[in-house]
Fold this protein.
Amino acid sequence: MYSILRINTFLLFKLRIEQNVTRNFWRNDTGISRLINSLSVVHSKNFTETEQFRYQQIRYVVSGFFNKHSAEQIWKGVSSVSKAGRKRGRGKIRGKKIIKDLNKGQIIGIGKENIRFPGLSAPILRGRELVQQQTLPPDENYEENLIKARKPMAKLVRQKVAPIDRGWSGGHPGGRKIGPPDPIGEDKFENFESVILEQKPVVHMTRNFGRYRTVACIVATGNGNGLVGYSLATAPEAKAALKRAKNRASQKLMYVQRYENHTIMHNFYARFGNTKITAWKQGIGYGLKCHRILKSLCELIGIKDIYAKVEGGDSTLNIINAFLIGLLRQKSFDELATETHLHVVEMNKSNDYFPKVLASPNDPVESSEETPDFNLYVFDDQVFHWKKKWPPTYTLGKRWPIELRKRENIRSHFDTKIQLLAEYNELKSFLTDRYHECKPCLPPWSRKIKFAKMEHESSSES
Amino acid sequence: MKVGGWKSETENLFLNEFLNCKYLNSSCQRNLSIEKEVITKETSKLFFSEKAQELMKQLTGLNIAKIYRTRTIEGKTLPSLHKFMTTEQLRHAQAEAIKKAYKKLKMPPLIPVNKGETEILEEVPEIIGFSKSKYVFTDITYNKTDRQRHIVVREPNGVLRKALPFERHRMNEIYFPREGRSYQHPKMFQKENLTPLLEKGEYEFILDRACCQFEPDDPEFHDITFQTYQKVNENKAFEVLRSTRHFGPLVFYLCLNKNLDNLILENLETERLNDAILSIQLYSLINPDCEFNTLNLNEDNQIEYIRSEAIRRLMDVRVSIDSELQTIKIVKLKKISVFGRRLNKVFELIINLFKGYANNEELRIVSFHPK
């Protein structure tokens, strides 16, 4: 506002030179222009009365709010948050008022009234002729352009991220993909992809700076074909930390065995710290049903089908460590066969339980009464305790049997409806041809509509 | 187009019936389309005879990898079980699997069509008009198969009769629904849906589902299966049905209709001389009036005879095409004995020459001079 005032006083000074300034030019809705308007009235009287002061600058000292304070001060009054408020999280709220630069989009000499001022907004001489001051028809786009120029400064706007790049949840960077690691010399990391598994601010105290903030992040990278690596890095800025973690992860790659490139070799149990992970092998098309960190890791490794449970601690690093320990400790079928001196045989319902020999030892046991259970063997003789599934609470009350009794006569309506639609392409049965009124029951609301229609028809006929 | 120079010289030989030149041109094939043989009690008896069953089993083969192939449900497989086994256990499991494979290859029976004749059990004129509806009584005691079960109908005119096949199907499906069988016959068996399926080559699927849905004496079952067999024969897609339960009935059907050319041809193309011999044996079994049976050969001689005869018939041939008369001339040449690979090579050459002729549809002289 201060700036507008400044421009206008400047204009006033300029205008004094010109004789044919009309009062209408200053007629404006804003308070400031009204103020200036009154000034100009005073001035114009002076102007006409005393011609000898024609080229003399006159300062008008009007005491008021806008004259006393600088623009910075005025803006601060509107937009600032106290230090206490900032500490309580009111510092960066979306939708809060922020400082605008009102000079943006404004040009000296061009205003609401479309007037050409030679020497200011137009050249003084055109050819040999002196250009005269001229009022042109009003510019309709003037205000629109001003608003357009000021709009980007209006509010804090959050940057948009495409839904597919948002990671596990919208708010945090966890699960976001950040591309392959940087190439080292001529070695490029082709087909690699990196995922942020954790990014958090960490703080420590120093003598000089006091509370020193940095960003720590865990990034894993993999090629979707058995190779995977992960690393933790800290840096003052998130971007630098991510880059450092990503590139360090590419230096710590390890190879993971997979069964037919789609699932783990066998079920396993692994533990790191208090985090316990139990993973089950699955068939083609099952998908990844596990913790989101494991899901991201599996995608990087190239595991497509797995079911895993995480129990105990939920620290990101522990989960990653436990899972990778489990994966790296997997045994190939040959190893299992040589350890046990038994044939490893796979049977699947999809193959009608045909005994497919996966591996045979060099010195197989001919016959024995007991052979170890495969699942117990790979789980290190541990048995997973499945929690009991309780029936839903709504079935426990007295009301439920009554409800069931009430629903008894409509329990198969949906299936019947589908079957009738498949058979006759509409809701009717073999009886409908003989007895037209015999039609499967429609929902009450539609019956109402039907009756209303019938009544309407009968009344219109009569 | 006429086929000359072939029949006159060889009409005494039984091989004439299936080693003629029907396959040379598709227009020829259309003219010589077979009439459907109706399955009688005698043919059914023949089908179940030990010798025919043995031949069909041998022809079917036992491709374990195909029988136990992975079958996915909407592209999904189930998680597999793993086991540690001793050598003895493994051998036992493998033997069991082979036993099971034979069980899976059990052929659907070929029996005469049930024409829907009923038997009137009782007539009670006193109760005429007792009701507007028929009453169906079904015996639902356990330990009875769908075919054994007593199902009777009391008509409004007082007649008590045995239920018709379609009534039996409905009652059986209501009281004893079976997985894969539906009350209404699936729409895929309707003509407008079946033809595109046949063109797509889903033979095994059609035959499997028909086995599940229909009784073997259902006329619709005969219609669908025979239609499929014909299509398989037309497209020479025998490999699709090999090592499935449908291959035996397919060969039996083709023998019955004296339309074995494509099968023999396919056998020789894929170096299955033994299969060709077996199918010829089955052919002679089903058609007792063919020349082969009058020769009174014992078993060892039979095979030798067929082998030598097949080679002779196939090798001693010169093909020439007369452009003026628009005929293909096949002239018998000097006898040569070629076995195994060589035979197939020579035979391939002949086939390729004919194929070129059929595709281009322009007449050119083709001759074949074996050394």
Chain B touches chain A through 30 residues (CB under 8 Å).
